Amino acid sequence: MIPAVEPVAFEAVRALAHRFGDAYALGIHPMYVARAPDDALAQLEAALARHADDPRLVAVGEIGLDLFVPELTEAPLRQRQQLVFREQLRLARRHGLPVLLHLRRAVDAVLQGLRETGVPGGIAHAFSGSRQQAEQLLALGFKLGFGGAMTHERATRLRALAAGLPAEAIVMETDAPDIPPRWLYATAGQRTHGAAQGRNEPGELPRIGAELAALRGVEPAAWAALSSANARAALPRLNALWTDTPRPPSP
């Protein structure tokens, strides 16, 4: 899955998906709202209409709210984030597409927007909220994305959530190149002494999935099949693209 973050990248993301046989999503990421042109939403609407028949376009995303970055919490940018988010939800609903949600420190605010606008479901990316918030998202038809953060032993609450949620609630992700798993992560102290931060790539997904399978006490292959089915349920257009034949890694 290759999500876009701003209009200038829309066609490049689409081209990459077609080049490597992947799926893609189009949207305006909350961290890019400040620099988005005035006609960004119009560009998104035009791109969704232009590529409506493209089977590789499977969602609107990555969209949502970010209340972690300090400047994004200030009133003008927070309000603009909310406006852009809600308009993108309306576009997703109009085009019958699920959404890929960014909700860092913003789960409740995102939930409010979802309830007020309504969308066909999707994936709450890099979920790190509470069990109650998880259940509210599930009730709205969303799956919850778990990736590298869950592999860190200090993330006890997140690991407990990943182990205890219903199996049909979870999809696996890497967020490559961000959120490296435990085996790639170098602390600030380690980096000071010359250790390199490992590069997180899509190829880490099987190992991340195996880590979650171990938390749940199931076989990795069974978990891979189940979480893959969950992804197809969250993003129905994936069904037409799906193959169980492994692909070689992208160069």
Describe this structure in words.
The structure is a single chain. The chain is an alpha/beta fold. The protein contains 11 helices and 7 strands. It folds into 2 domains: 1-120, TIM Barrel (Alpha-Beta Barrel), CATH 3.20.20.140; 125-232, Metal-dependent hydrolases (TIM Barrel, Alpha-Beta Barrel), CATH 3.20.20.140. It has helices at 10-20, 40-50, 70-73, 75-95, 107-117, 131-139, 156-164, 188-192, 205-216, 220-234, 238-241, and strands spanning 2-3, 24-26, 57-64, 99-102, 122-124, 142-146, 170-172. Strands 1-2-3-4-5-6-7 form a 7-stranded parallel beta sheet. Helix 2 (40-50) runs parallel beside helix 4, helix 7 crosses helix 9 (205-216) and helix 9 (205-216) packs across helix 10 (220-234). The chain is globular, with a radius of gyration of 18 Å. The two termini are 16 Å apart.
How are the elements arranged and paired?
Elements: E1 2-3, H1 10-20, E2 24-26, H2 40-50, E3 57-64, H3 70-73, H4 75-95, E4 99-102, H5 107-117, E5 122-124, H6 131-139, E6 142-146, H7 156-164, E7 170-172, H8 188-192, H9 205-216, H10 220-234, H11 238-241
In short:
The protein has 251 residues and is α/β, with parallel strands linked by helices.
Query: From the 3D coordinates, which CATH architecture of the largest domain would you assign?
Result: Alpha-Beta Barrel
CATH class of the largest domain: Alpha Beta
Q: Please, what is the oligomeric state?
A: single chain
Number of domains: 2
Distance between the termini: 16 Å
Unreliable parts = none
What shape does the CA trace take? globular
Structural class: alpha/beta
Radius of gyration: 18 Å
Tally of helical segments: 11
